[in-house]
Amino acid sequence: MTELVEKLADLTALRDRDALDIALVSAINDLLKPQSAAIYRVVGDTDNERWLTTAQMDADQVTPTSDSAWSELDLLPRMSEHPLRQQAVASRQVMQTSSGPDITVFPLASNPGAVGILEIGTQAPLSDNDLRLVSGVLRLYLNFQSLLDYGERDALTELLNRKTFDGAFLKATLEQTRTEDNAQGKRRSAACAGSYWLAMIDIDHFKRVNDNYGHLIGDEVLLLLARLMRTCFRFHDQLYRFGGEEFVVLMRCNGEQEATAALERLRTTTEKHLFPQVDHITISIGFSEIKTGDTPSGAFERADKAVYYAKEHGRNQVCSHAALIASGELVEQVAIVGDMELF
């Protein structure tokens, strides 16, 4: 009982979702001593759903491992390749193998798009006591995730909120630094290729929507735009609402052309979408690559200048900060700190 309390205390002390999954798998491993324990999340579109491993630990491992959050979708196993997991997700019931290796699958579902399972492999079927133990730990885990959602997600759109961004940005810059170091050592893989990009999205003339149709209709526009964003971006792109009509995307792309294509997809999808009462809206987007040693304020300043340029030059367009600098439309700012010049 003391060990269980300590594990639960460690679990609820975390504020990082990736670390939370790893801690859960580690706790299950310590409590049950299974042959394997893993958390798999369902990612991808309805017709191309895949399994992403967020934490996995076998009996001979010291610490859990996981897939990169930026894994290529087509390299992940298809959902249909693991029917027991698929059944657990569909039925929301605990599923167990009837023959062969003893596998028990527990369904997991918390925030939107975070459907998954906990899979435990054992030498013998889990006892009723073990099933109750795992179910109890999972209830605590899911309740704690709900609390994180309450503090980290925008109440209206259920996108991530502004206060979660700095931590994600730091992870991105550290990951990008490691990727660049690996590239110099010629160990860069296709799954880890690319760099990080920050995009700012602003609804054109949103004040008119609120003035002409009321704030309830305005809120509906924001909610529907958030849904369009989920359909236009990949499972690992991080979507934020920063307040009002301002949205942010943190994504990984293989160059400016790919980033532009992703953002153009959102722009055209939004332009064609029929919003109730309002009919059509447009959006302006500015974006910038995240540089080595970048800060959130530095990246935001570049993206903000690009979106401001878009709005001042016709709206309903996607503008790259780097392209605007290269064409001479914008001038690179130089910040002088002491005797150092920072670009």
* Fraction of residues in β-strands: 15-25%
List the helices and strands in order.
HHEEHEEEHEHEHHEEHEHEHEE
Question: Largest sheet, order of strands side by side?
Answer: 6-8-9-7-10-11
Radius of gyration: 23 Å
Mean pLDDT across residues: 86
Structural class: alpha+beta
Domain count, please report it.
2
Regions with little confidence, pLDDT below 50 for 5+ residues: 186-192, 335-343
Task: Write up what this structure looks like.
With 343 residues, this protein is α+β, with helices and mostly antiparallel strands. Helix content is 43%, strand content 22%. The chain has ten helices and 13 strands. The protein has helices at 2-12, 17-32, 83-91, 128-152, 165-184, 206-213, 215-232, 256-272, 296-312, 321-327, and strands at residues 36-43, 50-58, 95-96, 102-108, 116-122, 160-161, 195-203, 238-243, 246-253, 283-289, 318-320, 335-337, 340-342. It has a six-stranded mixed sheet, with helices on both faces. Strands 2-1-5-4-3 form a five-stranded antiparallel sheet, with helices on both faces. It has a two-stranded antiparallel sheet with strand order 12-13.
Observed structural traits:
elongated; Beta-Lactamase; 343 residues; Alpha-Beta Plaits; 43% helix; 5-stranded antiparallel sheet; alpha+beta; 10 helices; disordered C terminus; 6-stranded mixed sheet
SSE blueprint and pairings:
Elements (H helix, E strand, L loop, with lengths): L1 H11 L4 H16 L3 E8 L6 E9 L24 H9 L3 E2 L5 E7 L7 E7 L5 H25 L7 E2 L3 H20 L10 E9 L2 H8 L1 H18 L5 E6 L2 E8 L2 H17 L10 E7 L6 H17 L5 E3 H7 L7 E3 L2 E3 L1
Parallel strand pairs: 6-8, 10-11
Antiparallel strand pairs: 1-2, 1-5, 3-4, 4-5, 7-9, 7-10, 8-9, 12-13
